[in-house]
Structures are given as C-alpha cells and as structure tokens.
Amino acid sequence: MTVLSERLERPVSTSPSRAVRYVPLSAFVIDLAVMVAACLLAVLGRHHLPIFRSATDVSSSVTTVGPLLVVCWVALLWALGAYRSDVFGAGADEFKRVFHASMYAAGFVGVGCYLAKFSLSRGFFALAFVVGLPALFAGRVVLRRLLHQARARGVLQERVLIVGGPKQVDDIAAVVRRERWVGYSIVGAVVPTGFEASETPSGVPVLARAQDISALPEWCTDTDVVFVAGGLPYSSTELRQLLWDLEQHDVQLVVAPAVTDVSGDRVRVRPVGGLPLVHLEGPRWAKATRWAKRSFDIVGSGLILLAAFPLIAYAALRVKLYDGGPVFFRQTRVGRDGQEFGCFKFRTMVVNAEALVASLQQEQGTSALLFKMKDDPRITRPGKWLRRFSIDELPQLFNVLLGDMSLVGPRPQVPAEVALYDDVLHRRLRVRPGMTGLWQVSGRNDLSVEDSVRLDLYYVDNWSMLQDLSILGRTVGAVLGSRGAY
C-alpha cells in the first residue's frame, strides 16, 4: 500500500460544523407546526366550503383523524427522505420529496377512510392539504433562505478536503468560493507528489502530497466531506475501499466530475452493473426558441404593459419636461442569431450621450465590452430615478411584443460589444435577449465581466420555463432593492 509521501504540518480548521446536523431537526419542527396549523385551519374553515356542506355532524371524526393525519404525513416525509441532511440548501429534490410525501399522505388517508367506511369531513380533508402543502413549501423556502444567509456569514459550514491535481483542486475551489451559500469551507488539499508548492495557484493550502488515494483516511479525520477530483490515480476498488474507510470517521465522499455550469435537470445518474454512469443532457437553448416561451412572452408583456401604463405615462412626462428632448432612446442592439434591432428605452442621458462614450472609455481605461460606469456624468436627474428602479427599461416590453426580445434572457448588447465576442460568447446569440436575466437578479452592473458572461451562458445551456418564472420573481426583489442599478 502506498502511503502519504509527505504530510505537511498545517493547522486544520476545527471550528464546529456539526451544528449543520440540526438543520433536519429544524425542518421537522417547522413541518410539524405547519401541519398542526393547517389541520386547525381546516377544522375552523370546513363549514365555509359550500361544495362540501352536509347535514351530518362529523366533528368527532375530525378530532380523531387530525392527529393521525399529522403522524402519517410526518412519517411519509421521513420515509421519502425529506429530512436527509443532503437535500437541504440547493436543488429541487427537497421540494419534490415534500410534494410526493404529501400526495401519498392524502391518498392513504382518503383511501383508508373510504375502505373503513369512516365518516371524514370532506371539507376538512380538502382544506388540510390545500393549505398544508403550500405552507410546507413556504416553510422550506424560509428555512433555505435562513440557511443560505447563515452559510454566507460562515456559519453551518461543512469542512471540505479536496483531493486531486492542482488544476482540478482550483476548479472545485472556484465554485465553492463563488457559491458560498452551498456551505462548504475548504480546509486544504491533497495533491500528487510531484507538486512542490505549499499552495495551489488559487491559494488552497496543500496539506499533504500522495501517490494515490489509499492512505487518505488518516488525513480526513478533521473534515466532513472529501472531494475526489482527477489528478490522482485510483481504481474502482480503491475508491470503494476509501468509501468504507471514511464511513468509520463519518466523512462523506463526493466524486467531482470534470464538468461545471450544468443544471441538475440535465444530469442523470444511471447505475449499470453497479457502475454509476453520469448522463448529461445536451444544451437546451433550442427549447428557449419554441412557441411555449414565445406565447408566454406575448401574454406576459401585454399584461405588464396594461398594469404599468400609468407609470409609463408619468415617466414619459418627467423625461420630456426636464430638457425637452426625445422621450425614448432607440439604440441598435444585437438579438437572436446576430440580427440587429432597435431597443427601446426611456432616455436617461443627455442628448449627445453617444458622442461622449469614446472619451469616457479612455478616461476609465475600459474596453467596449460591457461598458458601464458609476456616477456617469451623462445621466440626467430623471434618468437616475428611472435607472434606480429599472423603469427606463419598461419600453422594451414593445420589443418583446415585436419578437425582438424575451421577458427573460441574456442581456442585449450593442454591435461594438458583439464584435469582441469569441466562439464561446457567440452562444449567447442563440436565444432572444431578455429584459431581465440571471445577470440582473445576481448583481446586475456590480458583477464582473466574467461573471456576467458565465451567467448568460449558463442560462442559454440550461433554459427551462421554471427557471424563467423563478428569475421573474427574483427580478421584483432586485428592482425594488436597486441592487447593482446605475
């Protein structure tokens, strides 16, 4: 057996991370409170449902079935894994388990009462689940947000040791550092023996050097999770033995494939003969160009225009009265498949703003790609208010109706910016640009160029209608909070 060729004497973080185990208990308490509240509301409200009115008094059956319903509901949540520690914090798996458990609970209670010829109030039964299921989702959403906030502050972290080559270690570390809400705290790395530096290029401390993974368990006692990446040779037998050895220390093993920016919906794990094969679905940009998204854009933009008409009229009046110039600013932007179109916005700058771009770029020392600057001297007084709450972009709803843009998509850019694109960036042009997108709900202009590009490419490759709805919902908070707006 090959042992660690060199173990470096570096302090390992021993900050308590075991408190993360109380997250499932917190979820259980929240779920139990929600179920009890839903049953109480169902008891009080069942008489107010006209479709379930009955002259029969079934009050005693409600008090009997209510506690049994709660017990059955909680038991199914536990049986379906809704309290597993690895379902909290990310992904849709947690909500799928809650939904399936709730449906099974409704089926068991309904069918059980029918077979037993038990007189159960139909109003109580319907209200308990109609109120209870959305309330369970809401409770899990609140818990997830609290968990993300705690992890962003460095609380409820799991200590992670990354095993692999320096490049593979840095790839994983970049994602972990960027997505702090995931709750991983990197304590160090184990790298191949040929690497002599005390840190990887991105600054991950090297705790040990090894020829293979056989002796890793003796160095994993102070961690919670071990990420195994490429760069160290190992066979399937050695990886299985490592899993058995880590089990004795209560340490999780994660095998990290060499792929990033792939949504969970595109990943399928299919065991074949005991070999877990990871299937990756192809990019979904083609689905974002079909009739369902286009129909949603037409209906959504029309309804928003009707609702926002008074605000649009007020904004147009303020722009016109300020300096007497044009109300709208029509700028050439590049849309789907490189087609240029006129993008409508309320004018927020002085009339000769375009003529000042070159001098401002030279002054700021920036290129044309994603050119933005704080305290832009070209912005008018009404323009600052319009930009702060993104009201200047409301006229783009007409672009959505015309088919030039979508409600959600990559940010539209000018031809000068597109001229700087490489082959990778041209993938952004495979879908219609959007009024809002991942870039807006993730920081807008406060993002770096690299992060903006990464988010746009992630959207193009991983499009889904649910993601569009989520982005639209998050946009409301981003606009009201004025995050990154200037």
From TrEMBL:
InterPro entries: Bact_transf, EPS_sugar_tfrase. It is a multi-pass membrane protein. GO terms for molecular function: transferase activity. It holds the Pfam family Bac_transf. Its EC number is 2.7.8.-. It comes from the Bacteria. The keyword Transmembrane applies. Keywords: Membrane, Transferase, Transmembrane, Transmembrane helix. This is Sugar transferase. It is an enzyme of class 2 (transferase). It is found in: Membrane. Belongs to the bacterial sugar transferase family. Residues 293-480 form the Bacterial sugar transferase domain. The chain crosses the membrane at residues 21-44, 64-83, 95-117, 123-143, 296-317.
